[in-house]
Design a protein that fits this description.
Blueprint: H1 2-6, E1 19-27, H2 28-41, E2 45-46, H3 61-84, H4 100-148, H5 174-179, E3 191-198, H6 202-213, E4 218-223, E5 228-230, E6 235-237, E7 239-246, H7 249-261, E8 265-266, H8 273-329, E9 333-334, E10 340-348, H9 352-365, E11 373-377, H10 391-403, H11 414-429, H12 432-447, H13 449-453, H14 459-466, H15 468-485, E12 501-503, E13 516-518, H16 537-570, H17 574-605, H18 611-620, H19 635-654, H20 658-663, E14 666-669, H21 682-685, E15 695-698, H22 702-726, H23 729-753, H24 758-796, H25 813-816
Antiparallel strand pairs: 1-10, 1-11, 2-10, 3-7, 3-8, 4-7, 5-6, 9-10, 12-13, 14-15
Membrane topology: Multi-pass membrane protein
Function: Essential component of the vacuolar proton pump (V-ATPase), a multimeric enzyme that catalyzes the translocation of protons across the membranes. Required for assembly and activity of the V-ATPase.
Protein name: V-type proton ATPase subunit a
Length: about 800
């Protein structure tokens, strides 16, 4: 048996890659280039030899800080380009590589230039907005002033209070300087203040003015015809022009303070119509000049951003790579001579040759007189776990890793989950109409795979795209199970021939309840369509799906136990085989394996035996005659033997602690294949470097081992029952999906189709489509997906999978290229 197992071909995904702990001694002059080349290769995971030091105490902390500052400037440029709405595609011609110092100097110059242009543009924009508001106030306030002249005293005195402006605005024109100077005012006359305020503040502003002046004011308002850009938020806001008439110096002071508190901008408006027209012409002239200046500044700024945008992608990649290189160099230590850097790391065994070649090329390219020393070390700790995956298997491996990363060279559940996961999903989702809808979605993702992989997707779309092959397999298996259930949106079809049943006479032709007799061979594939609508449809389908769920569950749990055997054999643990695998196999199959056998025999023979009675009285009365519940000869003594096996296997599984106790010592076994524990004795030195296991003696703690194994035994015994019951979710969700489909088809689509009104039919069709899409294709898909996930994580992987390893994370530029800094 051992020879047969040893001759079996190894699977790449069955166990993780063999890992090697290596040490690098790199001359300082070639260290940067060596780490860069290793990052391009992406097959070496460095260990941090300076874990006790803070980031600021490390050797290359200044270089990392410089790269971080350059990353900040690049993010600033990217935000400015996005804010300006520019689309700068990178140049296609090959650009020469730029040194980090030159890039730092260029980025500083570009940042200073863009900041200066932004500052000038902001000032010009603020002046433009003030002039635009002034123009609107001049246009809108004229109507209020004309109507107030009938009540005025006839004096042409202008209020110097009206010359208030935002941020000291009065240096706009010669007219303002000449005509708007303060003059002696009539202290008892009617005065006014005009300005503009945001619409959302108007109601509170007017109420505050009324309360402050105790109603001794006249407030006029009118909306502006155009929206104005807010300089602080760059958003277009709607504003209201107002004119406040009042009397008295105290009222003027209060009104101006309230205007300042509410952010209202006040502008001087002369009462003379001629001066208003002249002032409006001057404001329009200045607005035209400012528009031209702003357009020229925007074009110049866009040209500068375009010049940066052409190389922005390359610069971002360069800075990220350099920062990653210096972060990695900070994980290395100087030797005693301060001339070499010493590093350690894990690499797959197959990659040692490639790493050695890369280091030789780096030494040659850096013109170093001393080569890099690369040698293999022995390791005490467990190596990282590394599986080589492709586009199909990567999604399933991620599903397994979400539960826990496999121990080093532990059996990988992802190998079997590629088939079992979509199949169990399809058992719960079986409908070949719904499966076709999933298939169309998966084919769409596959058809646009190249385009979508280069785009930045949302979180939901990214999840769907990452699992496109999982969706494809789930769709194919759903079509297969749907053909077995003979359901197309809950409607059965005679795809594989006619039904095996027909009516006994004409009285049952419209009933579908009684009178059906079998007159030909069984339906060749799947469920006979005549069961649909019959009185015994639910009992028949319930019995079929419930027993099928038990069979699938027992098969998958046995697969998990078999994998635990291969794990124990691989790690050389005969104790786990004798006191865990064998008792667990006997216990599970003596109880539920026997039940599965009875189900198959009952299906094959057509017996009417009550399996509930058989299983219950197997323990209550093992010597009692079975009578009509006997399915095969020798069933009663076989059941008695199974009862004995159950008791014996429980004791054997619980006595796992006896073997180390009898041997007088407790051996600690390292879960690895390649590395032994470093020792100091001569015996330890004789162990081969590639030894599968290192040994270390520990004090044997009887109580700890006894309690641990007792808990483990009780957990398995009780878990075997609960796990088998858990697989009944396959039956429950399949039944729920089928009944929901039937309800939507019969109570929505067929009910609407019974009316002659085309509008009612159209509404019924739309409701049926939405119910199918959002409930059956989205909610039911998610439900079946999560339940299949539970069955794999708990019921299947719990039999053999530890999941306490850690993932192999090599230093690779490909893994950091899309990371956000």
């Amino acid at each position: 048996m051992d020879d047969f197992l040893d001759k079996l071909p190894q699977m790449d995904l069955m166990r993780s890659e063999k890992m090697t702990l290596v040490q690098l001694i790199i001359p300082v002059e070639s260290a940067h280039r060596c780490v860069t080349y290793l990052g391009e290769l992406g097959l070496l995971q460095f260990r941090d030899l300076n874990a006790d030091k803070s980031p600021f105490q490390r050797t290359f902390a200044n270089q990392v800080k410089r790269c971080g500052e350059m990353s900040r400037k690049l993010r600033f440029f990217k935000d400015q380009i996005d804010k300006a709405g520019l689309r700068c595609s990178p140049r296609h011609e090959l650009e020469p590589d730029i040194e980090l110092g030159d890039l730092e100097r260029q980025l500083a110059e570009h940042e200073h230039e863009v900041l200066e242009m932004n500052s000038n543009s902001e000032k010009l924009r603020q002046t433009y907005n003030e002039l635009l508001e002034f123009k609107i106030v001049l246009q809108k306030a004229n109507g209020f002033l004309v109507s107030s002249n009938a009540h005025a005293t006839g004096d042409e005195t202008e209020l110097h209070e009206g010359t208030y402006s935002n941020n000291g605005f009065i240096e706009t024109s010669s007219l303002l300087e000449q005509e708007m100077r303060p003059e002696p005012l009539n202290q008892s006359g009617l005065r006014f203040i005009s300005g503009i305020i945001n619409k959302d503040k108007l109601l509170r502003f007017e109420r505050m003015l009324f309360r402050a002046t105790r109603g001794n004011m006249l407030f006029n308002q009118t909306p502006s015809d155009e929206e104005i850009m807010d300089p602080s938020t760059s958003e277009m806001v709607e504003k209201i022009v107002f004119v406040v008439f009042f009397s008295g110096e105290q009222a003027r002071t209060k009104i101006l303070k309230i205007c300042e508190a509410f952010g209202a901008n006040c502008y001087p408006v002369p009462e003379d119509t001629t001066k208003q027209r002249q002032l409006t012409r001057e404001v329009l002239s200045r607005l035209s000049d400012l528009e031209a200046t702003l357009d020229a500044g925007t074009r110049h700024r866009n040209d500068a951003l375009n010049a940066v945008g052409y190389s922005l992608t390359k610069w971002i990649t360069t800075v990220r790579r350099e920062k990653a290189v210096y972060d990695t160099l900070n994980m290395l230590n100087f030797d005693v001579t301060k001339k070499c850097l010493v590093g350690e790391g894990w690499c797959p065994t197959f990659a040692k040759t490639q790493i050695h070649e890369v280091l030789q090329r780096a030494t040659f390219d850096s013109n170093s007189q001393v080569g890099v020393i690369f040698h293999v070390m022995q390791a005490v700790e467990s190596p990282p776990t590394y599986f080589r995956t492709n586009k199909l298997t990567n999604a399933f491996q991620e599903i397994i890793d979400a539960y826990g990363v496999a121990r080093y060279q532990e059996a990988n559940p992802a190998v079997y989950s590629v088939v079992t996961y979509p199949f169990l999903f399809a058992v719960m989702f079986g409908d070949w109409g719904h499966g076709l809808c999933l298939l169309l979605g998966a084919l769409y993702l596959l058809a646009r795979e190249r385009k979508l992989s280069s785009q930045k997707l949302g979180s939901f779309m990214e999840m769907l795209f990452g699992g496109r092959y999982v969706i494809l397999l789930m769709a194919l298996f759903s079509i297969y199970c749907g053909l077995i259930y003979n359901e197309f949106f809950s409607v059965p079809f005679h795809i594989f021939g006619g039904s095996a049943y027909k009516c006994r006479d004409t009285t049952c032709s419209d009933a579908y309840t009684v009178g059906l007799v079998k007159y030909r061979d069984p339906y060749p594939f799947g469920v006979d369509p005549s069961w649909r609508g019959s009185r015994s449809e639910l009992p028949y389908l319930n019995s079929l799906k419930m027993k099928m769920s038990i069979l699938l569950g027992i098969a998958q749990m046995n697969l998990g136990l078999i994998l635990s055997f291969f794990n124990a054999r691989f790690f050389g643990s005969s104790l786990d085989i004798r006191y865990q695998f064998i008792p667990q196999m006997i216990f599970l199959n003596s109880l539920f394996g026997y039940l599965s056998l009875l189900i198959i025999i009952k299906w094959c023979t057509g017996s009417q035996a009550d399996l509930y009675h058989v299983m219950i009285y197997m323990f209550l009365s093992p010597t009692e005659e079975l009578g009509e519940n006997e399915l095969f000869w020798g069933q009663r003594p076989l059941q008695a033997q199974f009862c004995y096996c159950l008791w014996h296997s429980s004791l054997s599984h619980g006595c796992f602690f006896l073997n180390p106790l009898l041997s007088g010592k407790f051996t600690w076994r390292f879960q690895g294949r390649t590395y032994g524990v470093l020792g100091t004795s001569e015996v330890d030195l004789d162990v081969e470097p590639g030894s599968a296991r290192g040994h270390q003696e520990e004090e044997f703690n009887f109580s700890e081992i006894f309690v641990h194994q007792l808990i483990h035994s009780l957990e398995f015994v009780l878990g075997s029952v609960s796990n088998t019951e858990s697989y009944l979710r396959l039956w429950a969700l399949s039944l729920a999906h089928s009944e929901l489909s039937t309800v939507f088809y019969e109570k929505v689509l067929l009910l609407a189709w019974g009316y002659e009104n085309i509008l009612i039919r159209l509404i019924g069709l739309v409701v049926f489509a939405f119910a199918t899409a959002f409930i059956l294709l989205m909610m039911e898909t998610l439900s079946a997906f999560l339940h299949a996930l539970r069955l794999h994580w708990v019921e299947f992987m719990g039999k053999f999978f530890h999941g306490d390893g850690y993932k192999f994370k090599p230093f690779s530029f490909a893994l950091i290229s899309n990371d956000d800094e």
